Amino acid sequence: MFSFDGSCWLCPGEQEEAIAMAIKGRSLTWDNARKLPLKKGGTTDIYENLRLTRSRPDMLRYFGELCANPFRRLRVDRIVEVPEAVSPLAGYISAITNIPLVTIREEAKDGRVVKGKIVGDLNPGDRVAIFDNVITDGASKIPALTALRSAAAEIVAMVVLVDRQQGWKELLVKAGFGDVGVWPGFYLHDARKYLVTHRLMQRCDSATEAKNPMIVALDGKSWDEILPLIDQLRTTGCILKVNDLLFNKGIEWLLPNLSVYGRVMADLKGHDIKNTLENISRHFGACPPWAVTVHASGGREMIMATRAKLNEVGASATKILAVTVLTSIDPKTCEDIYHRMPLDQVLNLAMEANIAGADGFVCSPQEVGKLKEMYPNKELVTPGVRSPGADAGDQKRVDTPANAKANGATKQVMGRQVLGAKDPVAEVQRVLRDELGVVT
């Protein structure tokens, strides 16, 4: 049996068609403000409800035939229905595949002809696959999994149309079902991407994006780890900075997917011969990021070549941000490397980058005031920003968000303080509201 990890039973083209059909059949609802209520609390921007197919025979036929394919491929002996789904699809799938259907009740029904939890014929050793329209945290599937294991069935997979990616992996492991794979048709992210790219749903209103100065650094995290965070941050207008994740997932995949949730700062810190930077820059044409970083010490020719290539491939709106002296470098180390103190070296590198046409500079909050005086119209991005009392980590030249803003920073990068918070979204909103005076 093949592994389901990260795979879908629909190919990208089929996913788009399925999402379009769900929209047509009014089985997909969305809200720009993320205020659709969820059964277990909280809100979301997208809600899928295939229960409505019972009133649309054409939609029942389409989704039934679509969802039958994974069961044919799995070659199971039984399809298992979870009652909470309240969907007419399982019966339709059973009929057209000729695979018997079993229903697992959450609780046994006393005083009924069929008293047990399992409705239908199920034999020890039967290969079974659970079907449901959607999976969120996986809690509603635990009673069915427990009943099937007690009946000595071989649980091949859980087949769902939509995976909301809301923690089911962790819950299944805790419940002792870590060996059961989930095979989705598509992810909720795919529906969100479809809606945003087809302009049916707005990523974030432009006024909110324009007034938000925060750049959230998504460093050291996987796509699955950052998705719940960026989903909730989408409407705040934060810029999303990626470095190692961009190398891991690749420009071609990550930029169009991450751009669903916000403007993207591709923090590549390019520093090489101009030909190499030209080769990198040409990949940004398909989905131009908000900004790309290069080291100012790479020289004028490298920066100019980067600008020319971005313009050539249709990414003229992408800003080039020249990194000056890293915020992890203290004065002594700076003097050892550059034979200058940080401020002098920042000013020297900024002058070179400015001549080459850089759109802005990356510097610590301690030098941003001087750069603001000299280059009032440039984008000034400051890492090394920490709230009062927060751990500075490996950053050496730091200041508070309020001070960075007062000294002229146009954008501020916050990473570990946000990602390490108990509630990262609440921490972003707190800093914006209480320290930067920004209401989103």
Any overview of this molecule?
The protein starts with 11 loop residues before the first helix and ends in a 5-residue tail after the last helix. The chain folds into two domains: 12-193, Rossmann fold, CATH 3.40.50.2020; 205-435, Alpha-Beta Barrel (TIM Barrel), CATH 3.20.20. The longest helix is centred in the N-terminal third of the chain and has 18 residues, at 57-74. Helix 4 (142-150) links the parallel strand 8 (127-135) and strand 9 (154-163). Residues 111-115 have low confidence and may be disordered. The chain has 440 residues and is of the alpha/beta class. The strands form four sheets. It has an eight-stranded parallel β-barrel with strand order 11-12-13-14-15-16-17-18. The chain has helices at residues 12-24, 57-74, 89-97, 142-150, 168-174, 188-197, 206-211, 223-233, 244-249, 251-258, 274-281, 300-312, 331-338, 342-356, 368-374, 401-406, 416-419, 424-435, and strands at residues 28-30, 36-37, 43-44, 46-48, 78-81, 101-104, 118-119, 127-135, 154-163, 182-187, 214-217, 239-242, 264-270, 291-295, 319-323, 360-362, 379-382, 411-414. The protein has 18 helices and 18 strands. Helix content is 39%, strand content 18%. The relative contact order is 0.08.
Brief sketch in words of this structure:
The protein is α/β, with parallel strands linked by helices and 440 residues long. It has helices spanning 12-24, 57-74, 89-97, 142-150, 168-174, 188-197, 206-211, 223-233, 244-249, 251-258, 274-281, 300-312, 331-338, 342-356, 368-374, 401-406, 416-419, 424-435; strands spanning 28-30, 36-37, 43-44, 46-48, 78-81, 101-104, 118-119, 127-135, 154-163, 182-187, 214-217, 239-242, 264-270, 291-295, 319-323, 360-362, 379-382, 411-414.
